[in-house]
Amino acid sequence: MAINRFELVTRHNPVLEKVDLDSPLSVGNGEFAFTVDVTGLQTLYEDYKENHVPLCTMSQWGWHTTPVSRSSKAATGDKDQERYSYSMDDLIKTEYDFAGRKVSYAVEKKPGNEEVYDWLRQNPHRLNLGRLGFLYQGKEIKADELSEIHQELKLYEGVIESSFRIHEKKCFVRTVCHSSSCTLGVSVESEALTDGSLQIALIFPYGSPDITASDFGCPELHNSKIMKQDEHTTIIERKLDGDGYYVNVNSNGELHDHNDITHQFILTTTKNQLALTVTFTKQVSESVIKIKDVFNSSRSGWKSFWEKGGMVDLHKSKDSRALELERRIVLSQYLLAIQSCGSMPPQETGLTCNSWYGKFHLEMYLWHCAYLPLWNRSDYLERSLPWYRNHLDAARENARRNGYKGARWPKMVAYDAIDSPSTIATLLIWQQPHIIYMLELAYQNKQDKVFLEEYWKVVEETADFMADYAVWNPEKGKYDLTSPIIPAQEEHDPRITVNPAFEVEYWRFTLDIAARWAERLGKDGTNWAKISANMAELPAKDELYLAHENCPDTFEKFNRDHPSMLGAYGLIPSDRVSKAKMEKTLKTVLDCWDYSTMWGWDFAMMAMTAVRLGDADTAINILLKDTPKNCYVTSGNNFQKLRTDLPLYLPGNGSLLLAIPIMIAGYPGCWEEFPGFPKDGTWTVEYESISPFPY
User: Which residue ranges does the record assign to the Glycosyl hydrolase family 95 catalytic domain (predicted)?
Assistant: First the structure.
């Protein structure tokens, strides 16, 4: 019997009955997102900002660069000369020995070079496009002025409905996003509108690299100009240094400049209903999207989304945790669709707020999006895959800078794919194989030769770098991954890190995939296959897999951050791993690791390892472990307690959805039904359109 998808999804509609500063709700479409408080707008902006959960309006294309000559008076050369940007050539890099030759990376902040380092790290940064919020009698509204709050995100429609009283006056607000345009729709019903008490303010900030992506304190540095206005439509031009965009406001009210505050526009009406759409565009457009079209687009788009792709129903289970797991699965699908499934790899906080200046971390791309083909949503993954193809030149230059062949994918980048200086990022390598791993997942879902041809150059150049980076060790008769390396567990000295367990096995596995791509297309992949077959062994001691070859005290001194050695038999299906050793390693990690230092995706990764080891009880227990980094708030976001810079952590949500297929549908060589769920009669699992793990 088919799953009743409407009933399943709607039983997990997030509902708020009070101001919850940890759990704002969002609407969006993958290219654009708008995050709101309990008023359905961004009215309580300051309260959320103080709680480190800013309310932003963000897009994939909305970035800002602070000119060098503005960010500091100490620009290089003539101090009177305007300079807009720095480049990697302006950095003084740190030298390392790599297999007998010198390589250099932007790791240390060198004396006299601090400005260059910081500027390149922080620019370009993602931009908050604007704040839309209510005013009452011309003033900011405080949380204690609100009562009788009820807010619900109707997942099947993509509509947030918010009701509340402001000074005893009832308000009802509906907030929605167009399915394919950066257009927000808002409908307000309240008697407080008729006498002008309740107004809507549209406020524009300058750019900032901080978590808010906003600087409201320097109005002189940017421009907000009405280009065109008629009875219902206003087009506003925004200029911030060399960046700009346009805002088209259509409403049944009147929009005008605030008399006293620059960059603020006030929308009023004498009726008890106010409807508006706000469209943000990179290029000027006079096209008008009506409010009914935004609602219709959202409803049809989300109905289509929920009725296609994978679905899991756990509500018949007796285990008390089942509905919570089902809730996390449903809400993670919604959140990742609006935050992570756009035209670029996502940042860790998606389009909600800035993390690491709004730049995305390519080592997290897998955790954000690799689940999509397994849930039969390859088309959502294919929105961002072209970014790799389009930025091959930047990746080639990143490899060439240190004399390597092929294309080297950085860790921390903006839209331009240029590496960012960092004590960690420039030495990280585990992001490199991700694109091969994910392209193979998509191919297995599509079985399309055109797809192979389309992404062959990406696979070829990615694998060429990996092959060139592996160093032949004649004493071992194996290929090493040698220093300088920062492994996935970012706790190790790069100068002594050799053959990190997960990376060695990941190199081996994905080079073999690259060789198979070559074979399918009649190309030569023999060198990749040779290196894959001769990668160094996984380092081990006392029947435990180690973090890396020179880390014998892994479980005594390095039992924090990611236990990444477990990924060598979870995320990937290594045929070299000893199950007995991995079983002992998993048990030791569970017993000794500092859970407060883990990250959201570690729990799903460990669950996958437990599934391959045939331990369903451990898989479900670790997936749902009650610990600060595995917390999922009302909105469904994986909230990283103990950190103020990560109010949400989308790799946690994505890793959950990546673990579910192997737990439900299995993997090659596994004939057990639902291998990730205990067989004690407490779990009843139904699913549709979820593929077995192909690895």
Answer: 441-625
User: Do residues 134 and 266 both lie within one domain?
Assistant: yes
Q: What is the pLDDT of residue 82?
A: 72
pTM: 0.97
- How far is it, in rounded angstroms, from Cα 303 to Cα 319? 30
Residue 12, SS3 per DSSP: coil
Structure tokens at 576: 């070299």
3-state helix, strand, coil in the chain (%, to 5): 35, 20, 45
- At 115 the three-state DSSP class reads helix
239 and 214 housed in the same domain: yes
Separation CA 377–CA 12 (nearest Å): 21
C-alpha–C-alpha distance, residues 625 and 627, integer Å: 6
Rounded mean pLDDT, 571-580: 96
Residue 445 dihedral angles phi and psi, to the nearest 5°: -80, -30
Q: Are residues 297 and 256 in the same domain?
A: yes
Of residues 621, 626, 597, 627, the one with CA closest to residue 609: 621
Q: Three-state DSSP class for 313?
A: strand
Confidence category of residue 261, pLDDT binned at 50, 70, 90 = confident
Residues 45 and 87 in one domain: no
- Within 10 angstroms of residue 142's Cβ, the number of other Cβ atoms is 12
CA–CA separation, 103 vs 404, rounded Å?
10
CB atoms within 10 A of CB 596: 11
With beta carbons less than 8 A apart as the criterion, state whether 10 and 33 touch: no
User: Quick one: residue 468, left, alpha or beta (phi over 0 = left, psi -120 to 50 = alpha)?
Assistant: alpha
* 78, 97, 122 - which closes a domain: 122
Whether 72 is covered by a domain: the verdict is yes
Span of 102-106, 253-257, 366-370 with lowest mean pLDDT: 253-257
Q: How far apart are CA 95 and CA 108, in angstroms?
A: 10
Mean predicted confidence (pLDDT) in 116-139: 98
- CA–CA dist 58, 354 (Å, integer): 9
Find, among 446, 435, 443, 301, the residue nearest to 368 by Cα. 435
Element (H, E) at 34: strand 32-36
Among 306, 340, 368, give the residue marking a domain's end. 306
Question: What are the Cα distances from residue 65, in Å, to 59, 62, 87, 528?
Answer: 15, 11, 13, 40
> What is the helix (H) or strand (E) element at residue 436, kind and residue range?
helix 434-446
The verdict on 178 and 232 lying in the same domain is yes
Residue 198, in any domain of the structure: yes
CA–CA separation, 147 and 137 (whole Å): 17
User: Which two tokens mark 640?
Assistant: 């990283």
Asked if 558 and 491 touch (Cβ cutoff 8 Å), the reply is yes
Q: How many independent structural domains does the chain possess?
A: 2
Residue 294 is part of which domain span?
22-64+125-306
| Same domain as 133, residue 118 | no
Residue 50 belongs to a domain = yes
Average pLDDT for the chain: 96
State the residue for tokens 């000119």.
67
Confidence label for 260 from pLDDT (cuts 50, 70 and 90): confident
For residue 230, what is the domain's CATH number?
A: 2.70.98.50
Q: Which of 496, 536, 529, 534 is nearest to 512 (CA)?
A: 529
Residues 214 and 259 in one domain: yes
Residue-wise pLDDT tens digits, 476-525? 999 999 999 999 999 999 999 999 999 999 999 999 999 999 999 999 99
Is 287 inside any structural domain?
Answer: yes
Domain shared by 79 and 163, yes or no: no
